[in-house]
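4.2 Preliminary Data

To establish feasibility before requesting continued support, the project team ran the inverse folding procedure on a target of 201 residues. The structure was first converted into the token representation described in Section 3, and no sequence information of any kind was made available to the design step. The complete token record follows.
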């Protein structure tokens, strides 16, 4: 019985059909409308990875709506036990971000539902939102528990193009104030690990 329960916990969740993304400069916009609520949810992510997926989820550079403000973020979507190191970033991890020639900011990582989200602190959000549209590049480096980098690791460089147009397109698809609130932690990675520990006792 224990083996069966562990196997069920480890089994990957069924993949959901994803809409084909719309390319806007260096960005890709994918939106889907929930037919039960008529709420449109969009993901605007850079075409290149911060860290490409190998085993488990990759790290993406996205633009998210936070309190009606569009801000940059580093994300790992739909984590599973294959993505254990990504989950550890939520314990004490940060994403270091530098937009253009502006000063670096650190974005703390947290679990939102089954996704890792590293977004600006509330004090840094206005600056991040102001710098993002005109930045020609983003430098990103992960730090802390669960990262695969050190202080001497060179950051990932992402070239940014047509960011303003991509943000305007996102706003047309998902107007300010209509984005879903950040998901509350449910059966997240930590919860899955805790249940496995209980089964093994």
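Position-by-position output of the design step:
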């Amino acid at each position: 019985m224990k083996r069966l329960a562990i196997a069920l916990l480890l089994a990957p969740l069924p993949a959901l059909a994803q809409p084909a993304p719309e390319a806007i400069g260096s960005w890709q916009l994918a939106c889907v409308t929930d037919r039960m609520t008529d709420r449109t949810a969009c993901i605007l992510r850079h075409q290149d990875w911060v860290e490409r997926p190998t085993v488990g989820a990759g790290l993406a550079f996205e633009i998210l709506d936070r309190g009606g403000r569009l801000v940059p973020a580093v994300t790992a979507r739909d984590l599973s036990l294959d993505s254990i190191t990504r989950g550890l970033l939520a314990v004490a991890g940060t994403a270091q971000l530098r937009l253009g020639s502006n000063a670096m900011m650190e974005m703390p990582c947290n679990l939102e539902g089954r996704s890792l989200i590293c977004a600006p602190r509330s004090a840094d959000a206005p600056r991040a939102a102001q710098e993002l549209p005109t930045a020609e590049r983003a430098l990103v480096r992960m730090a802390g528990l669960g990262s695969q980098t050190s202080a001497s690791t060179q950051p990932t460089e992402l070239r940014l193009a047509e960011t303003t147009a991509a943000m305007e397109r996102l706003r047309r698809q998902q107007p300010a104030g209509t984005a879903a609130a950040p998901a509350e932690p449910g059966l997240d990675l930590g919860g899955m690990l805790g249940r496995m520990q209980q089964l093994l006792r």
